[in-house]
Design brief:
Length: 119
C-alpha cells in the first residue's frame, strides 16, 4: 500500500483495497469542518480522490503511476459524521484510466457519484 501523506491530513483510512477496488473511511472532525460545522468540500474531494486513486493503483502494473487530470463533484447534502467512500477502476488503458466512486455519509444516508480520468 502506497502511503499518501495528504490522506492522513484529513484522517482518511484505507479499509480495503485490491483488484481495482477500494474502500476508505473518514470521520468528520474539527480539522475537516468548515465554519458552518459541515465537512469542507476540499476534504470530501480529497476523500473521493484518494479512494479512486487507491482503486486504480491496485489495478495497475507494478511501476505504473497515476495523477488526477480531471475531477468533478456535485454534493446534494452536507457532509457530517462518518463518511465511507467506495471506488473502482472502470477502465485502465495505456495512457489513461477512469475510476468511479460512491460515498455514503453514515448519519445523513445519502450517496453521490463521480468520475475521474487519470494517467
Amino acid at each position: 500500500m502506497v502511503r499518501i501523506p495528504f490522506r492522513e491530513v484529513i484522517g482518511a483510512q484505507v479499509v480495503e483495497a485490491g483488484h481495482g477496488r477500494s474502500t476508505l473511511r473518514m470521520q468528520a472532525s474539527e480539522h475537516t469542518q468548515n465554519n458552518m460545522g459541515m465537512v469542507h468540500g476540499g476534504a470530501l474531494c480529497t476523500l473521493a480522490d484518494a479512494a479512486i486513486g487507491t482503486a486504480l493503483r491496485s489495478a495497475l502494473k507494478p511501476g505504473d503511476a497515476i495523477a488526477t487530470i480531471e475531477m468533478k463533484m456535485n454534493r446534494i447534502a452536507p457532509g457530517r459524521g462518518g463518511l465511507l467512500a467506495r471506488a473502482r477502476a472502470l477502465h485502465v488503458g495505456g495512457t489513461t484510466a477512469v475510476g468511479g466512486w460512491r460515498s455514503r455519509i453514515s448519519r445523513a444516508g445519502w450517496w453521490r457519484r463521480g468520475l475521474r480520468p487519470s494517467t
